[in-house]
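Retro notes, structure queue

What went well: the backlog is down to a handful. What didn't: a couple of records were mislabeled last round, so from now on we paste the full input next to the output in the thread. Example, using SET1A methyltransferase from Rostratula benghalensis:
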Amino acid sequence: QFRKKRLRFGRSRIHEWGLFAMEPIGAEEMVIEYVGQSIRQVVADMREKRYVQEGIGSSYLFRVDHDTIIDATKCGNLARFINHCCTPNCYAKVITIEAQKKIVIYSKQPIGVNEEITYDYKFPIEDTKIPCLCRTESCRGTLN
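Corresponding output:
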């Protein structure tokens, strides 16, 4: 049985905005579903370019599988504010409900009130590096 966790977004020490717990969350609990528009890769590529042209600094594209991406940039929920961390307290998992793939964020460990919710974005390795801002002891230095 899933009861929606009480969460809030606010200023983050990691990067701009973040998502924070408003209640204690136990280990291995469902925290939130990553919600947005389900699109194909070609559409995601076009949107990413358009977002840059429009001056939208961050896009919220989350890969579900080889063909499908969830775009939460303009029609998402609070999950889009979750920041990357090299030592995260949560993880993302793709689950299938009634033949539909969904991205769900689960806690890896107990999370305290006002603690920031984080997960490892697991971006593919690329030549152009995106700097990581998590500043944890075991920070890899880049998101990719």
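Agreed that this is the format going forward. Reviewer comment attached to the example: The radius of gyration is 15 Å.
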